[in-house]
Structure formats: structure tokens, C-alpha cells
Amino acid sequence: MAHQLEALRRCNGRDFYALFMEQGTGKTWTILADAERCYMAGQIDALLVLAPKGVHTNWTLREVPEHLGVPCVAGAWGTGKRLRAELERLLRPRDADEVVPLRVLTMNYDAVMTKDGWEFAVRFLRATKAMLALDESHRIKSPSAGRTKRVMRLRPLAQIVRIATGTPMTNAPLDVFSQFEFMEFGLLGTTSYRAFTAEYADIVPNDSHMMKNLIKRNPNAAFAQIVARNPDGSKRYRNLDKLQRIIAPHAYRVLKRECLDLPEKIYKQHPFELTPRQRTMYETLEEELRIYLDGGEIETVDGIAAMTKLQQITSGFVNIDGAPMLLPAKDNPRIDAMLEVVEDLTGPFIVWARFREELRQISAALSEAGISAREYHGGTSASAREEAVDEFQSGAVRAFIGQPQAGGIGLTLTAAETVIYYSNDFNLGTRLQSEDRCHRIGTRHNVVYIDLVALNTLDAPISRALQRKTAVAAEILGDRGFTPTPEAVEMGQN
Hints:
By secondary structure, this protein is of the alpha/beta class. The protein folds into 3 domains: 2-197 and 237-257, Rossmann fold, CATH 3.40.50; 202-235, no CATH class; 262-274 and 329-493, Rossmann fold. It contains 20 helices and 17 strands. It has helices spanning 2-11, 27-40, 55-67, 81-87, 115-127, 146-154, 176-183, 193-200, 209-217, 240-247, 256-259, 276-288, 303-314, 333-343, 356-368, 382-394, 404-407, 428-435, 459-477, 486-493, and strands spanning 16-21, 46-51, 72-76, 102-108, 130-135, 160-164, 251-254, 265-272, 290-292, 298-300, 317-320, 323-326, 349-352, 373-376, 399-402, 418-421, 447-454. The strands form 4 sheets. The chain has a 7-stranded parallel sheet, with helices on both faces. Strands 8-17-16-13-15-14 form a 6-stranded parallel sheet, with helices on both faces. Strands 9-10 form a two-stranded antiparallel ribbon. Helix 12 packs antiparallel against helix 13.
């Protein structure tokens, strides 16, 4: 396609480059074509791809055999002596007159955190002239994460680097720092994340009411950089036009709506009421998790933990004699809401849920309703994952039930006509990735996305937060013609 050829043109001759290509626009093909070109030019003789777990095997099982047209040998990192022995062939010494094939190694990000994985990645890069490509590079967005630090240490061992993701900013503009720092130290004007944050975010001053209270409880808070918020609760960033100008020469942005003739995305909500018991628990916990500060500001003790506990209550997690329990399906209004939606559906559908316990209850409820389904989550074996996708795509089962964190990346689920979000989190990348499992090349029908929303809870603020993050990311990446859809605006107003 024209956009993929343009991406190749822009990568040509570059030691580092970012492919910010939305899901389904062919970034995998582009990386492989770029690697093939560099191999034929004698610039590299190997390719190391770091990708999310499960996605890394898809590279070697499907993408490499289909798209590479040069002699190659490929292997995906995994456990077991037999597999490790097979991977050693990638490093086999070659005779002087032997054509050295393009050696392709794919690993998941967590593998480089293990001793064996890290040592093999280093050996591979030192023994070859390699291109190092990060698939879904937003996985290294946190500078302090051990994963990010490990990946950064691999960078000097590669000849050429590429980063690729459709969602480089999953939570905030600050997410781009580590990704560009990986490509080239100081590429964004500083090697200090603290200085970068100060440049592009409005930081709450230490003499504010909120900071004084935080510092009083914890003196270390004086060194924290807390981003100020607008009246609507969104975080306040600045100089985004400057950041966009710095990023532009080193990245190519591709949007599906610009290059693919895909059907519409249609967004809907299905509201429901909590039970009286849930409502009491929700309001009590909400009150306990807040600290009221001078000036009328409100700050949670631990925002992520607080939101997780509140969201669990809306999904039916309750405390019984001090132990967390899940309401029986017959008493769980969120299950009832899902079944009400499913009752009106005629075709195949996906249900995404955040918590493993939710998946079990969803699966049992659908089974009782006579609907065939397969689960896909972090505990699903590799072979079962492949079977779940194949059976759903072939029509052998009607429903695909998954965790977006596990199944929302790298899968093709174009059989789905409807996607139900049983529960969400605040991560924009997780949401967009999971949406696009069924809205990509091969989609022939409109896809309806339905959010289950517990009235007067954090479900609606999550929708608003995701919409705001989409708008900020669009501004920085220069997404042309971006406007929130009427459905998305409606979602944010409920």
C-alpha cells in the first residue's frame, strides 16, 4: 500500500526511526520490508524484535514466512531445552563461502528481564550486525521501570533501531520520552526525564495547599512532580506544539481512516444500577479513600489502588466477613446487564473484562445461556490461545472472552460484529488496541462497541479520561482532521 511504501522511504538511510502506525495498517510488514532492504544492502545480517508476550511468536509463525523474501532463519524465544537448542542455530558459525541468511529472533519484553533471556539477547546482538525493533514500543514508556532500563542497555549493541506502535502515548505526552531516548540519547532536547516533565507539564508548586499537606505526611513528596489539573479533572500540559515539532522529523504517523476503507466504529453504552448493598459499599469506600485538603482540592491516597477497589465493587466484588467475594451471577447487576445486551445480538461477539474473576463468571453465565465461548487471558497456554482465536474466527464458537492486557494486542478477531466492554481501565493503549482487534484489514461490517456503565460511578469518568487522552495524543502526533466522534462525546458526558 502507498502508506507502507512511504514509511519505507522515510526509514531509508536512517539509523533510528519511529513508525507510529495505527493497528491494522501494516507496521509489521513495514519493519520486515525495511529489514530485508537493509540486509540486501549489507547493513545488517540479523533482526531482533521485542514484542508483547504471544505477539512475538506470531512474528515467526506467520509474519516472517509470509513477508520475507530473502534467505532467513527465524526463532521465537521460549522455555525448554529443546527450543533453546533450536535457537542456537541462529548463532551457528558460517563458512566463508556460505550465504549468511537474515537471522530473526523474536522475544517478549519480559524475557529480557530473565537471566537466560537477557544473556541470549546480548549474545545475539554482539554476534551479529542487527536491527533492533520494538513492536508496541509504548511498553517502555516508564523510564523507571526495570523493563525500560534493560531495553535501553540493548540499544548500543544494535546497528539500526526502529520503534513501532499505534499508541505512543497511552496515558500522557510524557510517555514518548523513553521511546525517543531509546532511539537516540537526548533526541528530545534532554536526557533528564525530570527536566522533560518540567518542560511539558504544569507542575503543582510545593507551596500549594495540596503539596504542603502531602509533604507534611511524607517529606519525600517535596521531590515529586505532580501534574496540575484543569477544572474538569484533566491533567494540564503545555508546549505541546514544540514537542510535536521535535518529534515530527523522526516519526511517521499513519491513521487507519487515511489509508484503509474500513466500516464505521459505532459506540454505545448500556447503563445499569448497582444493588443497594453495592451502592453503600461504593460510597463508603469512596469517602474513605479521599483526603480533603485546604482550598477544596481532593487527592486520593493511592489513585490506582483506589480506582481498582471502586471498580471491583461495581463488578460485584464485596467483602463477606472480611474476605473479598464475587457476587453470584444471579445477584450481579453487571452480569445481568451483559446478558441483556447479548440477548439482542445475533452474530459473533467479544467480551473484554479487566479482572480474571470477571472472565470466569462471564464464561459461566454465557455457558448457562447456551452460548459457546472461549477464554483468553494471562493464564491461557500458548496452544489454547491459538485454538481460541482459530475457533472464534472460523465460527466454531460464538463468543471470545478476554483480558485486553493479554488478548488486546496482536490478534485478529475480525469475525466479531459487537464488542462488549464489561469493564475498563484508564489505559488508552489497552482500549485502542483491544478495539482494533476486530477493526482492521479484513473487517467487512460495522463494529458496535458497547460499554457497560454502572450509573453514578467511576465508569463514566473512565470514558471521559480516555477521550481526553485521545485528544492530547492527536494534537502531539499531528493526527489530521481529528475530532471526537459524537458517540465518544456522548460517552464522556454521561
